[in-house]
Design brief:
This protein has about 110 residues and is mostly helical. Helix content is about 85%, strand content about 0%. The chain is built from four helices and no strands.
């Protein structure tokens, strides 16, 4: 399960009072034992917990995005560094080729 899916599930739970009441298992068992009906608005504690979980998941999602951006930046910097190193190698190869051709031409003339 990904973070966005978890946030979506929590948001759906927060939108439905009946589902939040169904999460109150101890209160439902106590009400059933005492032959009482559980009030539909008695889900405040569940709602507070779900809201806190939602905030924590949003924080995690922002942290994931930040870390992904940092990894992408590091990859870009590494790619530029490798390009510069490759260009130095190509330039050195060119200098050696020019030197070899000059030496070969000088030997052929002599």
């Amino acid at each position: 399960m990904n973070v966005k899916g978890a946030i979506h599930c929590i948001t759906d739970l927060l939108d439905n009072d009946e589902d939040m009441n169904n999460l109150l298992l101890t209160e439902q068992a106590t009400a059933k034992k005492n032959n009482e009906v559980l009030d539909i608005e008695s889900h405040a504690s569940v709602e507070l917990m779900l809201e806190e979980y939602g905030r924590q998941l949003n924080s995690i999602l922002l942290e994931i995005d930040y870390l992904l951006q940092r990894v992408q930046s590091k990859q870009d910097i590494l790619a530029l560094s490798m390009d510069a190193y490759r260009n130095r190698m190509i330039r050195m190869n060119l200098y050696l080729s020019i030197g070899g051709i000059s030496l070969g031409f000088g030997t052929a003339v002599a």
